[in-house]
C-alpha cells in the first residue's frame, strides 16, 4: 500500500491563497505517504497563472472527453503507486471530473435553495414523494447535470449511475411545469460549465434530453463492475429548511468505494457555526458581511481509496473559477478522550434513536451536547476534524441506501477515521442499492480508540434498548 508523495510545483506551493477565516488552521506539513497532487505539466511555471489557466483546462472545456496530460494547463490528480484495489489504478481522471461536476451541481442547488426562500415560484416549490419525503427541482436538476456531464466527459465508456430519483413524476402529465423548471435550472447551470473546467452542451438541453439523463441513472449496483453512486441532494429536509445538505458522488468498483466527493455548500469554515441554523448565518452575514475573497462557507471534499489523505477546496462562488491550488488536506481530530469529544447525529428522531445515542454517550463518558446536523455534512465534519463521532441507529426494518454513505465513508477513512456498522464490520457496498447485512447502526469515529469504546458500549446496552 501507499502512494507517491505530494509534489506540488514550487510556484503552486509557494503562495497558497490564505483564506482569512480558515478557522485559524494552516495546512498540515506535507505528509510522507501517498498524496494527491495538483501538478502542472508543460509550459514554464508562472507564479500567478491566469484564472482561466488554472481553472479551465482546455482538455476538459473544449474537448469533451478529458485527456489527462496533453493540455498546456493540465492539472492532474496524482496518487500513484498502488494502494488501490484493482491493480494500483489512480483514478486521476475520474477524481478530477467528479470534483468539477460536484462543484457545478452545488451551484444549481444553491440557486434552488435561495429560490425556496423567496415567494412561491415553480423552481422554489417543494414536492412530496410517495413516502411523503420532500423533493425539489434540485434533486432532478442535479441528477440530470451529473448524468449529462459524466456521460460527456467519459464518452468512451458506458457509464452506470445509481441514484435516488426516477423520471416518473417529471414524465407524468402533472409534471410538465416542474419539468420546465428543471430544464431551466439545468441549462442555467450547464451554460457556466467552463468555469468548472467542463464543457457546456452545444445547444440548450430540451426536456427529452433531461429525462434521458435522469433515466440513465437506473443502475442498481451490485458486486461486479464499476458504477457511480449519486445522492443529488442528501439531507433534503435540511435543504428545504434552508440549512445543511450535501451533493454526494462516489465511484464503486467491484463492490468497493474507490472515490468520493462531497459538496457541502453551507459548510461553515468556522466550525462553531455548525451549531447554528443557516438562517442565523444569513443574518450574521448581513450584519457583518464576510470580507471579500475570504472563504467563509461552502466546500467540496474529496478522497480516493488507499491514498491516506482527503482534501477540501472552496466552493466556486458566483464570479469565481475552480482553482486546484485552493485545495487543502483535511484530517480527523486527534481528540481521543471522550470528555473532550463531540458526537453528531441526524436531526430527525424518525431517522435515528436520540435516546439510545444519549445513553451510549453517557456510558462512554461523552459530556458535550450532540451536534445535530442534516446530511453527510456530518461525515465531512468528522473528516475535517470538527467533530469526533457520528452515530446513527435507524428503526428496525429501515434499510440504509448506498448513496447516503458511499462518498462520506471513503472521505472519513482516507482522512484517518474509522467507520463501520455497530458490530465493527465495514459497510458493504456490493449488494445493490442497500447496505445489506448492516448490524444495528453506523458508527464513525476520528480514531480506533473512540470507535472501540462505542462499539463495546453498543453491545453492552443493546439488549436493554427498545430498538
Ligand atoms: N426512517 C428513516 N430512518 C433512517 N434514515 C432514513 C429514514 N428515512 C430516510 N432516511 C435517510 O436518511 C437520510 C437523511 O439523513 P440525515 O442524517 O440528513 O437525517 S436528518 O434529516 O438529519 O434527520 C435521507 O436522505 P435524503 O433523502 O437524501 O435526505 C434518507 O435516505
Ligand atoms: Mg440522502
Automatic annotation (TrEMBL):
> Per its Swiss-Prot or TrEMBL entry, what cofactor is needed?
Mg(2+)
- EC number(s): the record gives 3.1.3.7
Write down the top EC class of this protein: hydrolase
Q: Where does Mg(2+) bind?
A: 164, 231, 234, 404
Provide this UniProt record's keywords sorted from A to Z. Hydrolase, Magnesium, Metal-binding
Write down the SUPFAM superfamilies for this protein, in alphabetical order. Carbohydrate phosphatase
One of its GO biological process terms is: phosphatidylinositol phosphate biosynthetic process
Map out region (Disordered) in residue numbers: 1-67
Catalyzed reaction equations: 3'-phosphoadenylyl sulfate + H2O = adenosine 5'-phosphosulfate + phosphate; adenosine 3',5'-bisphosphate + H2O = AMP + phosphate
Where in the sequence does UniProt note compositional bias of the Low complexity kind?
A: 43-65
Matching entries from CDD domains are given as: PAP_phosphatase (cd01517)
Stretches with biased composition (Basic residues): 27-42
Alphabetically, the GO molecular function entries are: 3'(2'),5'-bisphosphate nucleotidase activity; metal ion binding
PANTHER family the UniProt entry points to:
3'(2'),5'-BISPHOSPHATE NUCLEOTIDASE (PTHR43200:SF17), PHOSPHATASE (PTHR43200)
Q: What does the sequence similarity comment in the record state about its family? A: Belongs to the inositol monophosphatase superfamily.
Name the UniProt record assigns to this protein: 3'(2'),5'-bisphosphate nucleotidase
Origin organism is Oryza meridionalis
* Taxonomic path: Eukaryota, Viridiplantae, Streptophyta, Embryophyta, Tracheophyta
Amino acid at each position: 500500500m501507499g502512494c507517491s508523495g505530494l509534489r506540488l510545483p514550487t510556484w503552486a506551493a509557494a503562495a497558497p491563497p490564505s483564506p482569512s477565516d480558515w478557522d485559524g488552521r494552516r495546512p498540515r506539513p506535507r505528509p510522507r505517504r501517498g498524496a494527491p497532487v495538483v501538478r502542472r505539466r508543460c509550459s514554464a511555471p508562472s507564479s500567478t497563472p491566469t484564472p482561466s489557466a488554472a481553472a479551465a483546462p482546455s482538455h476538459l472545456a473544449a474537448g469533451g472527453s478529458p485527456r489527462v496530460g496533453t493540455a498546456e494547463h493540465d492539472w492532474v490528480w496524482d496518487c500513484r503507486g498502488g494502494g488501490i484495489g484493482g491493480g494500483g489504478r489512480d483514478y486521476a481522471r475520474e477524481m478530477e471530473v467528479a470534483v468539477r461536476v460536484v462543484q457545478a451541481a452545488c451551484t444549481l442547488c444553491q440557486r434552488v435553495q435561495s429560490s425556496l426562500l423567496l415567494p412561491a415560484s415553480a423552481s422554489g416549490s417543494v414536492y412530496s414523494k410517495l413516502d411523503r419525503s420532500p423533493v425539489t427541482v434540485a434533486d432532478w436538476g442535479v441528477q440530470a447535470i451529473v448524468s449529462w456531464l459524466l456521460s460527456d466527459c467519459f464518452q468512451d465508456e458506458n457509464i452506470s449511475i445509481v441514484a435516488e430519483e426516477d423520471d416518473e413524476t417529471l414524465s407524468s402529465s402533472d409534471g410538465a411545469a416542474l419539468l420546465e423548471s428543471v430544464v431551466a435550472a439545468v441549462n442555467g447551470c450547464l451554460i457556466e460549465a467552463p468555469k468548472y473546467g467542463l464543457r457546456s452542451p452545444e445547444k440548450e438541453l430540451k426536456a427529452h434530453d433531461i429525462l434521458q439523463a435522469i433515466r440513465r441513472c437506473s443502475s442498481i449496483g451490485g458486486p461486479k463492475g464499476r458504477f457511480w453512486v449519486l445522492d443529488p441532494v442528501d439531507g433534503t429536509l435540511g435543504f428545504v429548511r434552508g440549512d445543511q445538505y450535501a451533493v454526494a458522488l462516489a465511484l464503486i468498483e467491484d463492490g468497493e468505494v474507490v472515490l468520493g466527493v462531497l459538496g457541502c455548500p453551507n459548510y461553515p469554515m468556522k466550525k462553531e457555526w455548525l451549531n447554528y441554523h443557516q438562517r442565523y448565518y444569513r443574518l450574521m452575514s448581513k450584519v457583518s458581511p464576510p470580507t471579500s475573497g475570504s472563504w467563509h462557507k461552502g466546500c467540496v471534499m474529496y478522497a480516493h481509496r488507499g491514498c491516506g489523505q482527503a482534501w477540501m477546496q472552496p466552493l466556486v462562488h458566483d464570479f469565481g473559477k475552480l482553482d486546484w491550488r485552493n485545495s487543502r488536506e483535511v484530517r480527523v481530530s486527534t481528540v481521543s478522550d471522550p470528555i473532550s469529544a463531540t458526537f453528531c447525529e441526524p436531526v430527525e428522531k424518525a431517522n435515528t434513536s436520540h435516546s439510545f445515542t444519549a445513553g451510549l454517550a453517557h456510558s462512554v463518558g461523552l459530556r458535550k451536547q450532540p451536534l445535530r446536523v442534516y446530511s453527510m455534512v456530518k461525515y465531512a465534519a468528522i473528516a475535517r476534524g470538527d467533530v469526533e463521532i457520528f452515530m446513527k441507529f435507524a428503526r428496525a426494518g429501515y434499510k440504509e441506501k448506498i448513496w447516503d454513505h458511499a462518498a462520506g465513508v471513503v472521505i472519513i477513512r482516507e482522512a484517518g477515521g474509522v467507520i463501520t456498522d455497530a458490530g465493527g464490520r465495514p459497510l458493504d457496498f456490493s449488494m445493490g442499492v442497500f447496505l445489506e447485512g448492516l448490524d444495528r447502526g453506523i458508527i464513525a469515529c476520528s480514531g480506533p480508540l473512540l470507535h472501540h469504546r462505542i462499539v463495546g458500549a453498543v453491545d453492552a446496552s443493546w439488549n436493554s434498548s427498545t430498538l
